[in-house]
Amino acid sequence: MAKQKVVSKEEQYWLELTKDLFSPRGDGMKVGLKNRLHTGQINALRPLYENNIKTLMLPCGRKFGKTDAAGFVLWKQALFEPGSACYYIAPEGSHARQLIWNNNRIQKFIGKESSKYIKNIKNQEMKIEFKNGSFIQLMGSENWAAGNGLTPHIAVYDEFKAFHPQWHIEFAPNRAAKAAPLVIIGTLPKPGDRNMDQYNQVLDYCKKNKNSFVSVQTTWDNPINHLPEQKAIIDQEIERLRDHGDEDIVQREYYSKIVAGGSSSVFPMLSEKDHVVDHKQLYNHVKRDIKKMEWFCVADPGTTTCFAVLFGAINPYTKEVFILDEIYEKNQKETSTRLIYPRIKKKMKELNPYIDEDDWFKVYDEAGAWFANEVLVSYHTTFFKTEKRHGDKQEGISLIKDMLLHNIVSISSRCKDLFNEMQMYAKDSKGKIPKKNDHLIDCYRYFIDAANYSFESVQEFIKRKDPLEEKRFRRYEHEEREIDMGEDWTSDFGDEFDFDI
Q1: CA distances to 279, 285, 388 from 282, in Å
Q2: Are 159 and 301 part of one and the same domain?
Q3: Do 470 and 327 have their domain in common?
Q4: How many domains does the chain have?
Q5: Rounded Cα–Cα distance for residues 360 and 54 (Å)
Q6: pTM score
């Protein structure tokens, strides 16, 4: 007779806890899930549990199951790590109460078994206290002052795009001090969302930082949405949106893709695929003709919002335009001339080490005369003011559109803030272009104006696409490239997961 394995009370507790948390429920059982989470959620959360990622950003489509994913993250931490402080943050406290508190979705996350682990529920505070000393508390970002005093073990941001911008500023340092994981989950922002700029900054940080990860999920990554009844509802809603010409909403809300600016987009032809080029690849292309390029540095010296600078080059023979780098400084402590100009000078030297800073054509928004004066006095270099005339803005925007349509301009992958501005640039309800979130767009306009770029330049570029013109021009370029360019001084820039919950 086989000897029966003895299981201690502690082992029995953990086995029971695991079964309660991971058992499939509701519609998950209809599609044969063997786990509380569906495959899309498992893949999305993989980096958090296998690779010790500290910031996990999950842009996701409607009905992906973000609320269940958020609940799982919080309950897993609370149950498996006694004494954990777990926070769920919504745009406002009323949102948190409506979404997952009043309906008992978070309090009874694992069904009737939830009560086995809960010691107390505080309705007014929206706080669940567990018998093992952990707690889950719901808060709103409008209470940003409280974020400064929290010491979390884990946190979930739900719909970060609509947060009060001050929340993350106050909350982030305390989280970092404990190396507490942060999961940011929700749909992508649309023009006008109050936290759009910060959302894009955090998204960009997560893409570049080795301790962060971005996992984009669509509505269709949830197998439950392929059930006939669910699919019919979603298809009907998508069809209704498309009938109203709202394809941008369909792409954003269901496929987690941004369509530039939506139906009111100023630059609907803008495409990351067509217009954004990896910086090293683009620079190597520019470097071949670096000595015949005309080089421009354009500054928009903001005093209350941000200090924006754009660096670009134009090939005077082909009329090609290259936007190679940017500065987008929103910290007002870093925008003094003493701090910002050395950064500008460093970028100019990096982009073209063969010429002096005075060989760049440097332009500033005429409203920032203080900057030009200080640079002249302190660094003995000259910035020329723009010549703003009535109607110039619309004319400049129209010219940028032509350049995009004919693929005349190439934008470096470094210029993320320029791309974000252009992508989200949209007309208001009256059909007018608002004067906001356009600092680098203004720099782009001043750039092509300073270069005397015009519609005739666009036409000249188009003509050069003609085979006869192209053949003649190739011979000229070959002669130009006989110039010694010196050594290649550029350097290279520089997970798969196996996780089963």
Answers
A1: 5, 5, 31
A2: no
A3: yes
A4: 2
A5: 42
A6: 0.61
